[in-house]
Amino acid sequence: xxxxxxxxxxxxxxxxxxxxxxxxxxxxxxxxxxxxxxxxxxxxxxxxxxxxxxxxxxxxxxxxxxxxxxxxxxxxxxxxxxxxxxxxxxxxxxxxxxxxxxxxxxxxxxxxxxxxxxxxxxxxxxxxxxxxxxxxxxxxxxxxxxxxxxxxxxxxxxxxxxxxxxxxxxxxxxxxxxxxxxxxxxxxxxxxxxxxxxxxxxxxxxxxxxxxxxxxxxxxxxxxxxxxxxxxxxxxxxxxxxxxxxxxxxxxxxxxxxxxxxxxxxxxxxxxxxxxxxxxxxxxxxxxxxxxxxxxxxxxxxxxxxxxxxxxxxxxxxxxxxxxxxxxxxxxxxxxxxxxxxxxxxxxxxxxxxxxxxxxx
Length: 361
Ligand code: DP6
Known about the structure:
Blueprint: E1 17-31, E2 36-37, E3 41-42, E4 46-64, E5 72-77, E6 80-81, H1 86-96, E7 106-114, H2 125-143, H3 149-163, E8 175-178, E9 193-194, E10 207-211, H4 222-227, H5 235-255, H6 258-277, H7 288-304, E11 309-312, E12 318-322, H8 327-338, E13 347-351, E14 357-358
Parallel strand pairs: 5-7
Antiparallel strand pairs: 1-4, 1-14, 2-3, 4-7, 4-8, 5-6, 8-9, 10-12, 10-13, 11-12
Helix pairs in contact: 2-3, 5-6
């Protein structure tokens, strides 16, 4: 399949105005996307758990107007106009214009809010871009009501990817793969697909407690970080390793081997940060408290034999992953031993989710 698949026909139907609303979750990668080619094509495959509690709710209000040269939209976060969000949306609209032919025929009002606290350091780009992509697909569906659900989701993921790579993994759940590879042959560089193989009970309702270690703005954005993988001395080997880890994860997900699972995800997290530390210019996004927490997790795991592991995104926060059956003791440990390392003691309890939901029609 190529990009051509997502170019819309010219629609004859006339849609004058309306509002569509979607909620879309964040996701956490187990095998990380780090490094991309032109047009948001990933250098390596990635796989993620879709989350449930951390999500963005976006309403798109559209009103037909005479087509103009420019996009016409306003962005609001929790009711407040946010002009500083607009350049990112403008870039997104430019990237998707060829696939969403009606963008310049409407005036849009984009109203958005997140369930997680403002500036928590949790990236809202995956949930935010996927929610907006889904709203645009709902509008496209009004032009083309015959569109199948499969095409709808695929194209929503395709559009979301053009907003932010990882956003293409937020449309559905509970495990999503993005990027061509030899393990999941149905996977694509263009959109995320549901993980197609058996998954052991151990991974059902898997928990993700997100420790908010540092809520400050990141010094280096993900987009800059991805670009630093061009000419990176370890890039090629890292891209191969992502393929190997995805292949290894397949048997682990099937057998339910939690120790092997933890070894893969923790190695992926630290490799991601190792790539940052060995970029030129080099940088470190972990904070002293990130390291304190990792050491505490390792000590607690050794002491108790409980299956607590971690992963990191491109920031200082720690995602603590564990099976639901062990959550009582692990949550007690998080509350008493790890929360003191979080800013204002804050953490968010999340778990695997099934993807985005439409909230109106
Ligand atoms: C470390 O999807 O935020 O979270 O495509 O430039 O928007 P852009 O990058 P983004 O990168 C996320 C990278 C990551 C790993 C992952 O989610 O796979």
